[in-house]
Amino acid sequence: MKRLKYSKSLLVKFIVLFTFLGLSACGEKQQTATAEPEKVKQETIVWKLAQTWGTGFPIFGDAVIRMADLVKVMSNGEMEIRIDSSNKHKAAFGILDMVNAGQYEMGHSGSYYWKGKDASTMFFTTMPFGMIAPEQYAWFYYGGGMELMKKVYDKHGVYSFPGGNTGNQMGGWFRKEINSLDDFQGLKMRIPGFAGEVLSKLGVVVTNIAPGELYTALDRGTIDALEWVGPSLDLNMGFQKIAPYYYTGWHEPATELQFLVNREKFDALPEHLQQILTTAMQYSAYDMYARSYHESAVNWASIEQEFPEVQIRTFSPDIISAMKQANDDLLAESAANDPMFKEILDSQTAYMKMARKWTEISDYAYLKDNIE
Ligand code: CA
After folding, report:
1. Cα of 313 to ligand 1 centre, how many Å?
2. In which band, very low, low, confident or very high, does the pLDDT at 193 lie, cut at 50, 70 and 90?
3. Where are any strands of DSSP class E within 60-128?
4. Are 143 and 124 in contact (CB under 8 A)?
5. Protein residues with C-beta less than 5 angstroms from the ion ligand 1
């Protein structure tokens, strides 16, 4: 009994001791446990991105998804970007305003959509008779393009970054062949942007129609011609079934989309996240260029095979020369009234002149003797 009593009291002592030790050890553990997660478990930065495109829009929308996925993985979950499509935010052409206002931290769109607000923005998409994609990327990253783009977008409270290139776009689908400038008179065509202004000067009745209504408009003769992108995106639209003449391009030789980022929000990010975001945008933009080239090649092969009635046409030299003249006149008019417009035009013109000499003795020289 006594022994048992003794044992009991010893046991109690042990229990008290171990409980104390256990508690203090546990306390230490808890301290370490709370200190570590505080370091590791930072709050996830969640951003919202508004895109001009609808849900599931191929290639363009895929570039945005890829960018957001990369940011999440590369930041180890520290940053997430949620994407709202135009069917949700209902403002396909309000992206710049929404990102400027901070309603969305980011956007994905096309710089030339803002030309009504600021004519200088259109240079950062593509220009009729302008640079092809490799020349334009060289200009953006090494020829002063990024600096000029920053200068223009500073006024709008946002940063703009290249957002993916479609490559050279086709001149459009025509129901009738265009043999002379006379054929342009009264021709109803959907062609947006600066190219639309150029054709309008040459007698074309230019309209802009929402993508979803393009096929019906061409099928019913509301319009006689339209341009969209190129085989990468045109095939699914079905234009090859209703317009046999597919003209080569002159008006969008290197259409670059854009990522927009609210300036204050970007500046407030820690440096490593700024770097991750910038890298993810640049990677997904270049990836979209490669993807567009691939899809165009594959889709063109299938149009050629399944729709042998489709014929490739190129505008005649006198039509091209009239387009060039109208383009130069319009550019000179705008440059005369707008120093920023002139600065970018001069930069692009000078850069293209230099880069084209290289293109001529490299890719062009190689291709002209190697096309069967
Ligand atoms: Ca286009």
Report:
1. 17
2. confident
3. 79-84, 106-110
4. no
5. 169
Mean pLDDT of the chain: 91
Domains of the chain in sequence order: 45-167+254-295 (3.40.190.170), 172-252+308-352 (3.40.190.10)
Q: How far is the CA of 294 from the centre of ligand 1 (A)?
A: 18
Write the pLDDT tens digit of every residue in 244-275.
999 999 999 999 999 999 999 999 999 999 99
Distance 316 CA to ligand 1 centre (A): 20
94-146 pLDDT, tens digit per residue, is: 999 999 999 999 999 999 999 999 999 999 999 999 999 999 999 999 999 99
Q: What is the largest CA-CA distance in the chain?
A: 122
CA of 257 to the centre of ligand 1 (A): 11
Quote the ligand 1 centre to 252 CA distance (angstroms).
7
Q: How far apart are CA 124 and CA 258, in angstroms?
A: 8
Q: How far is the CA of 169 from the centre of ligand 1 (A)?
A: 6
* pTM of full prediction above 0.90: no
Q: How far is the CA of 172 from the centre of ligand 1 (A)?
A: 8
